[in-house]
Protein 1
Amino acid sequence: MEKKGAIELIDLDKSYGDNHVVDHINFSVEKGEFVSFLGPSGCGKTTLLRMIAGFETLDGGDIRLDGVSIIKLPPEKRNVHTVFQHYSLFPHMNVYDNIAYGLKAEHVGRSKIQEAVKEALKIVSLEGFEERMPSQMSGGQKQRVAIARAIVTHPSVLLLDEPLTALDMKLRKDMRYKLREIQQQLGITFIYVTHDQEEAMIMSDKIVVLQGGHIEQQGIPQELYKNPKTAFVSDFIGETNEFDGMVGDPKGDAIRILCESGDFLATGFSFEKDEFVNVSIRPHRVQWSEEKVPGFHLHGHVTDFIYTGSLVTAVVMLRNGRRVRVSRLGGRGLPKLNQIVHLFWNPKYAIVMKNPVGDVAKMTGMVKFPEKI
Amino acid sequence: MIKRKHLSTGVLTVIGILILLFMYIPIIVVVLYAFNADSVNYFPMRGASFKWFAKMAADDDLIRSLEHSLVIAGISTGVACVLGVTGGYGMYRFDFPGKSFMNKLVMLPLILPGILTGVALLTFYQAVGIHQGMMAVILGHSTFLIATVLPQVYSRLQQLDGNIIEAAEDLGATSSQTFFHVVLPNIQTAIISSALLSFTLSMDEIPVTYFLNGIFSTLPIQIWGMTRNGITPEVNAISSLIFIISLAAILISNMLSKED
């Protein structure tokens, strides 16, 4: 199947009064890509989606679909369809008529409509549901009808606005794989808006992390997970332990970071001594020992365990109350409750990032951290 | 303590029943008298008969006035529905300065005394050259009936999931396709219910009609004229008919407006 639906967002800009919801965004999606806009509520991701759909006007910039500007077209003229968060099926039509609607609006012949609806129902695995009314269906089924309705006219791009949020957990997990499967089958571009990083990680070819109307970072999921550029991204993508601290002396390949709970080694480039930074270390990368480890002064005691499926996490409380999570599959090799432990890790897994606040020490003349604890 | 509570509910029930009786006994009496075998309204009745209904059906003036009323109510309800629905939809889709003010303003004809509306319409129509008669009455009724249709339609639209309109446009429907395929079916109960209400309001409207009718009669004006020489059983018969039809219309209207 021929892939289609390349989208370019060029210097997109939008404000509501003083609220700069979309701040000069540049971004491109290749044909047949599954891209997620990921961010907290209010980050501008839904506005961006609605701009592409044609429901929002823009203050500046351009949107191109397969090379052609679409910003002057009304929603009904754009070859872009939306799957809404709350399904928004037509309540007075049965499943067949809901799905057929886009084709009927285009005055497609009856036999062709029947064929296309059948095909769409097959894709979302809802064969035999033609006569059902939306009110007689479960949330998951309605969502699949909404998807069928949006794909039946073969759009170049499908926009999905947090389509799984209204579903229960189990269904949500199944639907992730189903959506990815449908996208692969159709070969069209999916732009998926979500605040759930797990969803985005599982389904996407590319993730765009949005914050405050601008792109915080974009890339393939593994890249964002391994090399977050900002504390915001590392916090948003996957579980992480975060430290804010100050750059001490470089020591070999690693740099020493001082924080209020002690000091440790991490990896970072082009950071100056005494610069304020954020450091992210994933819970499964944190190791522990009963004795001191050279280069690390972080000790505390285990206060709690968290069980999330196969992963068990020990919570270690450091000096000054900072909590660090240590995760192991099946809980193998975790310390005991109340055990005193020294934490350390391979410095290459502790990522140093710029502190978004800026150089706090220089601004406030803050207290010096102790060299040794 | 418990006893006193029982006592107060008992008293409340009695008062409630008395209020209902106070409201409905007159109507019950009219309906009963419509079947009176006698020509004098007197209680207890000495027999029952349908003859007043027969006499009513044979009264040409009465039937003609009924026809007038039906035509006026039918057309002005239609006009009010078209204007009320398009107006309500416009207010729903577009934001414009003074929208909330307009929403209140449109209710005014319902609140204003009919006599004031009547005088105002008569003065205005004379100024623009619309003569008293059927046309003037239809225009007048349409004007104040918009006040029943527009707010009901507007409030139903506000309960609607606005995304279904976007969904239709998203799927390639033009604005008129969206309106007729998606919006209208979802507000039709509100339209039917307000149309029924409008129809009954128009059917028994006197003050505005009286200013605008000129020489012809509508049903309520005809009945009013007939009662000048005492209430005849014929009037009771037509009143009972109107009562039953109005009751049915109001009940249907109520049922529909409760529906989601």
Protein 2
Amino acid sequence: MAAPVVTLDKSAYNPGETINITVVYSPRSCTITGTDQDGLTGTASFVIGGVTVTASPSKTITKVSETGTTTRTATYTAVA
Amino acid sequence: MTTIVFTATDQNGLVGTATCEVNSAFVSGETKPTADNTGLNVLGLGWSDLTVIDGDLNITNALADANNNVFDKYLVNGHVYFTANRPVTLKNSVVRGHTFSTPGSPPRSAIVYARSTATPSTALLHLIACEIYPIQPDVNIVCVSGEKVGVVDRCNIHGGSDLINYWGSRVQVYNSYLHAFSFWADDPKHTNDGQFPGWSHNDLIQSNGCVDGIVFGCNMDVRANPNYGGYDELVAGGFAGGVWGSGIMLSGSAGYFVNFKIQKNWFGYGRNPVMMPLQSGGAFENFGCSWEVSGNRFYALPRAYSTSSRHFIAWGLQKGPVAASVFNNSLTTDSTVPSTFRDTLLPSAITQGSGLTGQLIVKINA
């Protein structure tokens, strides 16, 4: 069983830019968490057949879309 | 810089990760402008995001109308020539001129050419988040010039013999990285220089007079580009590292300087980083008033005038800004500052000379 593969569209962003995240995974559900060096987080959860999004107030995963059975994309707003 | 780690955890507890960096938010006057946070990097753009113009961009009224007075994301392999009669903004763009066959005879004297005395005073070309430099530096090319230069903000400008020349319009330069001018040892405009005949007089920002001018939050590295012009002659003449020229040169040959602010900038090197009106000629010289030069940070010493006299800020003794208007300027903690001077305030100005040739100078001996 393989671990989820996480890729980003760039390696560096400016504040306010959108970070596009793609996750490829094989089981039925998966959760993405973005954590900065101060411990602030944003989270998005994926379940096959539906999408669940949870967000923290300071750093937010703003949108989740499905692009395939086991591939999900999310966007995260970069905050410095 | 903020580092963000993304983790994806599946239902079996397996974890995948990816890491990225988020640049720090740019705070005007607090964030030092560099190549990394000016020009295209303000929005994280690359040249592939730009529309290429092979030739000059002639901003006429008709073209301005067609673009709603905003030109965004262009790579101009030519000059920008501004003749419109209304405010226009060029942003998120690169302008670099083009090559030409006869050194000393460029197709235009500026990469961004906004010279006109015929259009209204409101007809200004604003430059936001642009990189401007000559692909072929020349003794007769500056980067930005004209009576119609407006706001310059978050720009990366380099390579011209001067970088920004305001001719009469209000100086408004913010948050920009100005550096690596081209020095020339055979400048026909300066053959009468008594000490260094033919050496170019390089200024990063120059004005000949204006009201309400401001230079705020800029980083001015006042050193010549080693790859062009007469750099070797400059070094051989005693100016190691290409340390020469001025960051701001205000020479009031065409009008008064009234209410001019030079605040919270960074300066490094140069021969005299901040030079304000003197008395050596010109009908309007020596009449500056309502000025403030404060909160500026110097991160490398200017080249000494004599054996050890380093001049940071100088201006005319008579009728120039009062000494109390020049305050809270400091040396940084950078290793390029001698350890005994790091994190210290620059002293108050001293008087040198008298009468029309006298100066007030903020200086140290180092």
